[in-house]
Amino acid sequence: MARFNCKCGESLSNSTNPNIEYKIFSNNEWDNLIDRTENGEKPLDFDGYTVHFWKCPNCKRLYFFNNSSDKPSQVYKLEEEDGSVVKKVMD
Questions:
Q1: Element (H or E) spanning 38, and its range?
Q2: Which of 24, 28, 57, 68 could form a disulfide with 51 if both were Cys (CB 3.0 to 4.6 A apart)?
Q3: Over its length of 91 residues, how does the chain's per-residue pLDDT go in tens digits?
Q4: Could you name the domain of life of the organism this protein comes from (predicted)?
Q5: Are the C-beta atoms of residues 2 and 14 closer than 8 Å to each other?
Q6: Which domain holds residue 11?
């Protein structure tokens, strides 16, 4: 499990707060997962994702990771307080 500090100062850890981590599947990856489930294979094998992100509970920044890295590849932050616009802040 990983841990780092958000730019706002919030300590992020997916072991102490697993609700910050989200996995993203393409439609093709999701269809393959559903097909395997329907064929009687392990239904909760979610290892096929290629991208995941963490959402800071304090400032709502999104930290995107590639599956092969433990460092964010992209960071997004809310531009408006109501959450209507997201601004990319890093590549």
A1: helix 27-38
A2: 24
A3: 588 899 999 999 888 888 888 888 788 878 877 887 777 776 555 665 667 899 999 999 999 987 667 788 899 988 776 656 566 666 5
A4: Bacteria
A5: yes
A6: 3-90
